[in-house]
Amino acid sequence: MANRGYDVVVDVDAEGDLGHTDLQEDLEFHSSNFDDPPPNNKLPPSNNANSSSNDRLSSKRYLWSLSFYAQFFDVDTAEVLRRCRTALYPRANFLDVLDGNPDLYGPFWIATTVTFILFITGTISQYLASKGEDHFGYSFRLLSGASGLVYGYTGVIPVVLWGLLKWFGSEGANVLECWALYGYANLIWIPVALISWSPITILNLVFVGVGLGVSGLFLVRNLYPVVSAVDQKTSKVLLIVVMALHAGYAIAIAFLFFS
Asked: How far is CA 181 from the centre of its chain?
């Protein structure tokens, strides 16, 4: 009895008189549950906690998942057209037009369009230059050359520039913005390529020079606020290198396709 507890149950008369209670008949002992382990009062895990952890997992984007690359194409057609108009008729800084949401959708399709137009108009130019010969054979090496030139320049040079800006301490440098800037700068080469197929080499070179001037001015105007974050001497050297590489790009277009 010392090791177990008991509950005492007393039956009370209808009149509420305890004085006439017969303890032998009305007093009962029941086993108590004092020694039983206390019930587990822990609340079940909240669904909100589970949902928040799932949200954290779903917010992670991995290189091998489509969601990682989809964020770079999160732009609609109207916005791409607006950015194209700004690239051709710049009225404001293009980085302000991007508004913190640089895309790769426009740059990819612009580069692809430039590649195919260069191939087509370059082939026409070669055909006109070889007129009078018995046979003209076009080569798809011209297409591979256009692909390597356009995609290589648009894809590699912005990364190199971004790395140099980071190396020299520019906090505002963003590789996606550099890609978008160079990608939309290619837009001027679409009309240039469309009109540079004539057999008159000088005229073609003039058109390419116009394209170089428009796209080069676009690059310098929008890169200057970012490049100027480093010291003055370094910023001037970087701008000179940018223009030299861009001039080499234009010269390669002129002599590979329209000379």
From this structure: 13
Could you give phi then psi for residue 120, rounded to 5 degrees?
-70, -50
Distance CA 84, CA 78 (A): 10
Q: What is the pLDDT of residue 30?
A: 52
What SS3 state is found at 184?
Answer: helix
pLDDT tens-digit map of 209-222: 999 999 999 999 99
Beta bridge partners of 5: none
- What phi and psi values does residue 30 have, to the nearest 5 degrees? -120, 150
Please name the amino acid found at residue 218: F
Going along 41-97, which residue ranges are E strands? none
Degrees, nearest 5: CA angle 211-164-242:
20
What would the mean pLDDT of 34-56 be, rounded to a whole number? 49
180 neighbors 102 (Cβ within 8 angstroms): yes
Q: Are 178 and 240 in contact (CB under 8 A)?
A: no
Strands (E), the chain: 6-10, 27-31
pTM of the model: 0.72
CA-based radius of gyration for the chain: 38
| Residue closest to 119 by CA, chosen among 151, 137, 153, 145 | 145
Q: Which token pair is 45?
A: 């895990």
Question: Which tens digits make up the pLDDT trace of 157-184?
Answer: 999 999 999 998 887 778 999 999 999 9
Both tokens assigned to 141: 């090496």
Local structure of 9: helix, strand or coil: strand
pLDDT, the chain, mean: 78
Q: How far apart are CA 232 and CA 239, in angstroms?
A: 11
Position 53 confidence tier, pLDDT thresholds 50, 70, 90: very low
